[in-house]
């Protein structure tokens, strides 16, 4: 074998190994490490009016995690957003969350009755939030001159 044939076969083998390494790296690199493409939103997202929320993909997220957050299947999110490979999403990508997702309703305010006895650590804002009213209403109903000063044991009228 001549030196020239050894060198050219070595170059070919080296090129093949480099190409194989690039392909494997691209296939094995998690979607979160890849840069977001410089495209606009997919046509499926802009065309669909059934988005009840939009999710910006953050580092470390994948469609499985996102689907659990919203209670929507991976395949439904992928279909609505025109994603052919659910393993390939990008940091910064905006995903349309389809209409099968219904955000949880806020918890109803606790029933406080007509009067409330202030406990240690209570503030007017925490009492108002807990009892479904406003600080302004509590100040007005109870004639409180300084809303920043209430005492434990003080009885407040709620409505």
How would you describe this structure to a colleague?
The protein is mainly alpha-helical. It is built from 6 helices and 4 strands; from the N terminus they run ααβααββααβ.
SSE topology:
Blueprint: H1 3-28, H2 43-47, E1 53-56, H3 63-70, H4 74-80, E2 94-97, E3 115-117, H5 124-131, H6 135-142, E4 155-157
Antiparallel strand pairs: 1-2, 3-4
Query: What's the story with the biggest beta sheet?
Result: 2 strands, antiparallel
Beta strand count: 4
* Sequence of strands across the biggest β-sheet: 1-2
- Range of strand content: 5-15%
Structural class: mainly alpha
* Apparent shape: elongated
CATH topology of the largest domain: Membrane-bound Lytic Murein Transglycosylase D, Chain A
Q: What is the class of the largest domain in the CATH system?
A: Alpha Beta
Second-tier CATH architecture of the largest domain: Roll
Order of helices and strands: HHEHHEEHHE
For the record, the count of structural domains works out to 3
Helical content stands at 25-40%
What is the tally of helical segments? Answer: 6
Radius of gyration over C-alpha positions, nearest whole angstrom = 30 Å
């Amino acid at each position: 074998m001549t030196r020239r044939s050894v060198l050219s076969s070595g170059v070919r083998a080296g090129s093949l190994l480099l190409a194989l390494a690039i392909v494997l790296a691209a296939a094995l690199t998690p979607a979160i490490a890849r840069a977001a493409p410089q495209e606009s939103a997919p046509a499926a997202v802009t065309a669909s009016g059934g988005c009840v929320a939009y999710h910006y993909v953050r580092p470390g997220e994948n469609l499985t995690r996102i689907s659990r957050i919203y209670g929507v299947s991976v395949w439904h999110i992928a279909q609505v957003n025109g994603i052919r490979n659910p393993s390939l999403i990008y940091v910064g990508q905006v995903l349309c969350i389809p209409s099968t997702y219904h955000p949880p309703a806020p918890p109803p305010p606790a029933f406080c009755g007509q009067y409330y006895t202030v406990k240690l650590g209570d503030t007017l804002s925490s009492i108002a939030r807990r009892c479904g009213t406003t600080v302004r209403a509590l100040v007005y109903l109870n004639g409180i001159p300084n809303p920043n000063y209430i005492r434990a044991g003080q009885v407040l009228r709620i409505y």
